[in-house]
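User: Structure please.
Assistant: Input sequence and predicted structure:
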Amino acid sequence: MEIQKIISVDLGGTNILSALIINGKIEHRVKIPTDVTGGVEYLVTSIAGSVRKIIEETGTSEQELKSICLGVPGTVDPSTGIIAHAPNLGITNYNIKEALQKDFNVPILIENDVNIAALGIKVFEFQNEVNNMLVIFVGTGIGGALLFDGNLYRGSSNYAGEIGHMKVNEEGRFSGSNKFGKSTLENLASRTAIVKAIKKDLKRGAKSVLNETTKPNERIKSKVLSNALDSKDKLVTYHMKKAARVIGTVSGSLATLLNFDTVVIGGGVVEASPKFMIKHIQKSFQKAVLPEPGKDVKIVSTVLGDDAPLYGGIALTEEFIRD
């Protein structure tokens, strides 16, 4: 059997996670912080450096690699490699494929990060036995992906799935009205939004274990939120429930429209507190969805976690590179 080697890179808002995958198995990983302060060119240098680090540490040659796959949190055209808009990275209309291709004599494949994660989940978590699926990842931002009849749905211009930028109110109800301003799913239910709301309440004098466990300017990570939930912290519990309610309501409304059989939730916030988040997402989902399309929908957290977009690189390679 021919040995297949690829390098998959998940470009997150917090970390750049890269992995060497050999015949469908992750063999080596490298994680570095995502630094957007130096602009997109510095970010490209960081991505290239992460890939180089894997090559050097594993003794892999470029000639052995079938592809280098990159998942990006934003609107991406995989056919051109252009990132139209990645707000959490400060990137607009940039051809990252072209930029990376200057560093490597290996096919570079680009895809939206949740799209590529959905491919990984479909193949390696459900063994391709899933038909119509909604995937939502909750982290620094919120991203989504759609599968219909077992196939990734990219839309007419490759930008489908941007669920985080849908206009909703605090109950998760949709609106095209400008009166909600920046009230989007991402601005209400991402980790960034949850932490912002918590910090606002802390400044107002709200009581929380976070007053004792974190410094005023310290970054509050998903694990910190999870620990606070375990401590029955009322402030954190309130804001996490609120985020879950919005996610569940939006998911329920989309299931009414699109009749999914499966909803998969991932990302740092959910992976740190899966039982809590899924429980409250399911509750609001059932309130929002019509009974008929909602009765058989499975709502689960991904077991692949951060590995989902890495494994998705295999499916992406098979789609775009023919032997």
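The two ends are 14 Å apart (CA to CA).
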